[in-house]
Amino acid sequence: AFPAGHSVGRDTTLPRGTGAAGLAVKERAAIATPDALGDPRFVMSPGWQAALRPSAYRAMLAVPLLVQERVVGALILGDRTGSVFAREKVELVEAFADYAAVALDNADLYEEARGQRRAAEVFTDLVATLNISLETGAVLQRVAEGARHLEGEGALVLGGQQDEPSAVGAGEQP
Predict the structure, then answer these.
(1) Higher per-residue confidence, 166 vs 106
(2) CA distance 170 to 126
(3) Distance CA 29, CA 157 (A)
(4) Across-strand partners of 75?
(5) Which of 4, 36, 76, 124 is the most exposed place for a label (fewest CB within 10 A)?
(6) What is the chain's mean pLDDT, rounded?
(7) Residues 3-20: what's their mean pLDDT?
(8) Which DSSP state fits 51?
(9) What is the CA 97 to chain-centroid distance, rounded?
């Protein structure tokens, strides 16, 4: 749909308010155009204009992805320049966008719940360690390991007794 070297995929983020998607999100409604470059309603960077100019696919239909009035993205379809999207096609894409928005929201909720479950497991393990050992080094080590599991990175925990401060990095021995 786009010229060689220009693709729009799942990791593509357009600046807020850009192009057909930006207008669809702003107006919270489907936006269709037979030529995105010739449509004065669209704001596009010179880079996107240059990418679209040689393309034979400049007709666009953009639909916001909404979940309970909250925008979670936009769906854009392209067609040959000059094509007009029939009302039936627009309605079909809007229905698909509604389902896609709910699916994306559910996936986000699932990831959030998974993270909360992981945090609860780490805290449960930490409480068990605290109940078993009162040795400062062991407790600091377990806190550092828990922080690493929650954040996915190294952690440094400072603690200890007043006269014996300690620093423990996750994965290191005190």
Answers:
(1) 106
(2) 14
(3) 50
(4) 63
(5) 4
(6) 75
(7) 60
(8) H
(9) 17
In single-letter form, the type of residue at position 130 comes to L
Cα(116)–Cα(118) distance, integer angstroms = 5
Separation between Cα atoms, residue 166 and residue 174, nearest integer Å: 8
Query: Is the distance from CB of 85 to CB of 79 less than 8 angstroms?
Result: yes
pTM: 0.59
- Please list the residues that pair with 79 across neighbouring strands: 59
**In the prediction, which pLDDT does 173 show?**
40
Residue 21, H or E segment: helix 19-27
What is the distance between the alpha carbons of residues 74 and 34, in angstroms, rounded to a whole number?
Answer: 18
CA 23 distance to own-chain centroid: 20
* Helices within 71-170 (DSSP H only): 87-132, 136-151
Contacts of 26 (CB under 8 A, 6+ apart): 17
d(CA 18, CA 73): 13
CA 115, 14, 72, 97 dihedral sign is negative
Q: Please state the φ and ψ torsions of residue 32, each to the nearest 5 degrees.
A: -125, 145
